[in-house]
UniProtKB/TrEMBL annotation:
InterPro entries: SAM-dependent_MTases_sf. Keywords: Methyltransferase, Transferase. This is Methyltransferase. One of its GO terms (molecular function) is methyltransferase activity. It comes from the Bacteria. One of its GO terms (biological process) is methylation.
Amino acid sequence: MATVELKKLRKANHPLARAIRSLTPMSTFFREFVKHPAMIGSVIPSSPALVRATLAPVDWSSARLFVEYGPGVGTFTRPVLEMLRPDAMLLSIDTNRDFVRYLNADIADVRFRAVHGSAADVRKIIAEHGFTEADYILSGLPFSTLPSGVGELIAAETEAALRPGGAFLVYQYSNYMRKILYPCFARVEQGFEWLNIPPCRIFWSYKEEALAKAA
Ligand SMILES: C[S@@+](CC[C@H](N)C(=O)[O-])C[C@H]1O[C@@H](n2cnc3c(N)ncnc32)[C@H](O)[C@@H]1O
């Protein structure tokens, strides 16, 4: 179908345009999984139930900079933008150029930018966008299949990039995350979401000041 016709259908919110739209993220995700299985780490995107549970503790009124690692086709990205303040920003960092291109083309929102890069460079990336610290950092990274040492480096860089009291939100299929998060964060809370393929662990890790405030 010609691009111009598809754009017209999209504008009119035509059922055909909606059907094509829902197929595109799935097929993009699957194609990238076939190309880079270890980097993608999962054959299908996260479920709406996992998205809801992972984001449940976020205080949206205080979030000015929200960072996302490994957005893929934007399963979390769109719900985050729905909740984010009008004057806040979402930076989504992915090592996969095709996902970054897809997200920047598909999401027209002045509060959003997909950045090609590694989560290990989070401090440099947020500085390049005019920020000194993030309120929340969300991770969809496949930590257990990352090269040796990279997970530990990303956890340390994340803690350094968060504001005092800020939180690192991680969903992960294995318990591997515990040994990476515990040395970096003073408080780590855990949850579990059955309604996902496969069922998934959730870790909410808080930077120091939250403890002092809560005490
Ligand atoms: C399992 S997918 C998550 C997709 C999506 N967030 C979801 O929940 O459906 C993992 C993503 O992490 C990205 N990734 C892997 N290593 C990365 C790194 N070091 N920095 C940033 N993104 C990375 C992959 O390219 C992929 O998009």
